[in-house]
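Step 1: inspect the first sequence and its tokens.
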Amino acid sequence: MAVIKRALISVSDKQGILELASALAKLNVEILSTGGTAKLLRDNKIAVTEVGDYTGFPEMLDGRVKTLHPKVHGGLLGRRDLPEHVAAMQAQNIPNIDLLVVNLYPFEATVAKPNCTLEDAIENIDIGGPAMVRSAAKNWKDVAVLTDAAQYADFLTELQANNGAVSANIKFKLSVAAFNRISNYDGAISDYLSSFNDDGTRNPYPAQVNSRFVKLQDLRYGENPHQSAAFYRDLCPVPGSLVTAQQLQGKELSYNNIADADAAWECVKSFNTTACVIIKHANPCGVALGKDALEAYSKAFQTDPTSAFGGIIAFNVTVDKAAAEAVSKQFVEVLIAPEYTKDALALFAAKANMRVLKIDLPKGGNTPWEQGRNSHDSKRIGSGLLIQTADNHEISQADLKIVTKKQPTPQQMADLLFAWNVAKYVKSNAIVFCGNGMTLGVGAGQMSRVDSTKIAAIKAQNAGLSLKNSVVASDAFFPFRDGIDVLAEAGAVCVIHPGGSMRDDEVIAAADELGLAMVLTGIRHFRH
């Protein structure tokens, strides 16, 4: 391994750079630097040579041209193992540069500011930095490249352990990280610039989308054993999202586990009181509120004990010993909560295969990101991608319109809002019967809303639950009165749905005829 003798440092973010440069100086590494970085090093008594002095060419054009010089790129790109490269560099008096430390102009942070102008964005497009990073990363066998302050500590440990040298394996990993950084940087620039319309306004959907994800793990297989799969996360994951989970015990998550766990967690964290959600095949088969985790789980489990077998269970509160004892009586694929007591974890330890995940709840804020929600959703189709804003719409009682003669009671109104929130996470056509803060029957994914209603009623009957005096949520309007007839026959007395059908008057008249209270939201929640 060749010893690092010369480093070029040019960083926008100065975090950790003094410690790195100081350590390099102690290893007798000659340091080249630019502008503000060079001044910082000099001010802290670290020997440094300005790049302009090194190349004999002054920094110019307000800093746009300072490292774009053969003496810089030749020093980074020259191969030490090729005699013709070595001879050419000697003939032109180009020394080797063995280490490059660069982080780029803060383009992403600049365009994230609400008052960012196109001029601001353009001035924060780095040219020399990415050019140097690409040169160093291409020549990784001879040059190490650092593009993130988080790399400094491990790099110094490696350097000091090897008397100033770095292994080829480490240099290759740093090269890959460098190319990934350049890809992400260029993607962000493309996304931003592609969002401008001809008149200078911005379109929320850019002309080109550059998706960027980081692999968390390879999976044993996909939805089915003959499919391969891997699990990726966003570059900047939403706080409190599934990809931030800490797995405390159990087997590796499968493709289906991850999809179902996400459905469970997204649903349960939408409630601001103690809740439990049980998911099976991406649909809630039981959701309930309770005074504590045990009560919420017990009520959720009652909805559909058969489907709950092998399901995914999520809580939005700490799981204590009492709740753990109840959960442990069943076969559970994945359990999710923001926290567990020691007694609870001790009980789960006896079920070694059960996957136990801990996810911190988002702290809340004004934006979907701060609230722990994606701002956009996407769906892959044949050679294409559908992108939409995420369904983050929430309603309150003040948003509702009562359209029948009969008025819901306060308890019924609370159950209607609860049912409506659950329906948002059920595959369309969704029908959800509820009462007393728990689901009583869930009909999901049917081509006919009437069939969903019948299935929900059958589910309740199979679980031994009465639908008498229940409330019902439908994710979309009732196109005909037949759906109203079926849910009334099942025992429901209140229904909440968007409205908007050309036959709304007919449907409302049916509700009045049957003595139902009907509430309209004006918002549809299809989930395909």
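Step 2: inspect the second sequence and its tokens, then contrast the two.
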Amino acid sequence: MTNITLWLNRRHGFRFWAIRLRRRLDRINPGLIDQLGYTGLFVLSLYSFFYGMGDYGIINGNEALYVESAREMVLSEQWAIPTLNGLPYLEKPPLFVWLLTLAAHMSDSIELAPRSVTAGAALLLTLGMVRFSVLLRIGNRGFAAGFILVTSLGVDVMSRVAMPDLLLTTLFALGCFSFLTSLHHGKLAYYRLAAALLGAASLVKGPLALALFGLIVSANYAIEPAHRKAIRNFVFDPLAAALMFLPLCLWLLIIESQLPGSAYYFIVNEHVLRFLGMREPRDYYSGSMLYYVPRLFLFIFPWAGVLLFGWLGRSQQIEPVRQQNQRFLWLCVWIPFAFFSLSSAKANYYILLCIPPMALLTAEYLPNLLRERRRFHLGMAVTVPILIFVVIWAIRIWELRSGKTERLIPIRDGSGSLTMAVLVVLLLLVLTLIQFGWRRPAILCLGGLIMPVSFQFDHLVALSEPIMSSRKLAAYIQEHYPDARVYLYQDFESVGSLPIYLKRTLPVIDSQSNDLYFGRHRQPDHTNLVTAEAVAALGPGSLVVVLKERQHAYQSTPLAKCSEEVTTIGKARLLRVGC
């Protein structure tokens, strides 16, 4: 078998023809290969981030929250304090909402406009990864780092959802990489670029980015004596300090002048108390110290094995500068990971911050795995993540069938089993390429493993649209009751996309909404906060949206006796008041 493989490689293998093709293209245009590589990566990025992102409605909950805030900001022209259903909303600074309003001016599509912001952030992150990979001498012209990032599951999924976390990841990661470049090259411009990016990141999710960056730089200062002078220069540069801290400070001053007490609430309740598990309302997840371990694996899939076995097989005889770069990048992974693991407030997407430095480290270790003597390690790097992924899927199926967990989507169509089968077939293809010594094509095919998983994600979201989005419910109301008054019972976020499609805020009856908690306490008499008695006094004709889990509570209101069900779409029941 070995002799056959060697003969194929020498006479008919990919490497033989690739070398001949490269030499011929170099004679035609010396830079053509690089141009084709950059073009291919750019096209792949556009396809991964933008294709199909308008195929499903705005998702209730987090996505609908920001899209609705942007819609209201355009109408109210209140640019400093975002609102939600007409009430002040101060969980996040407004940069992401500002970008959504800009996108809304450029496109009329309710779905495409907001999601183009996150897709654009993912594209910017990819281009930035390529550039900083070159500056830090990681990989071959930056292709590897960009390709690994684009084909990572976490980035692929989050790029098609209008949430601020990918924008935060882009600004934070590029800020950290710019700072590392300044340490590498000693240029003040990169210090200031890092400060500007981190200052912008603070307007996405508050001081979290600045706190994490401070921890990373402090740890680097402690373990790298060679960097200490450069770090001191950065800390005492007045322009860098202004670029980093001034944006958030100015915004806090503005909102405090418009709504006294809001700055204290934002800093203390939304950030300090949140991560201590003492924030009110308690609308976040909690979990063990190991909460993020499987999520980190899934977000970097299918590259976790390449990173692990590349790290295990790394060469110890490398330049001191490259060792310093690697240690800094590992700090960019483990400090956010440790911070979120220790925090009492957890969410799946928080761990997205760790993915860009992991992609750079994977690109750094990849060349060593591509050597002939590392064939076994490369095979294991490919096989282990796929097997773990299949095991996780099998455990999930077992839990569903044994009743230990609830099914997110009630419809079963066999697409999950088909996706797993495709993954196994692609794994066999990759292993075959490795066996024949075609290691670089195998890496390209490894990145392609993300495609069936990405298709499955899109398929599941489209399949569950009546549950996850209120687009169909809004279409039903507009067709049958276009002029009716519409109310939400207790919940807002669970049908949060309904105001977006109806293009108006909706009063909430006896509100129990966590997202409206701050606004409800600051403006308890707001017109969008009503009681069941007040709605009943208006007479017949009103529509009330009641979630199935709120049905029991609704039965105790004066509206229940004279309400009749019109339709049920997903988990929402539409009732018409007749008294």
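Step 3: confirm your contrast with the notes below.
The chain has three domains: 1-30, 37-460, 470-577. Residues 4-12 have pLDDT under 50 and may be disordered.
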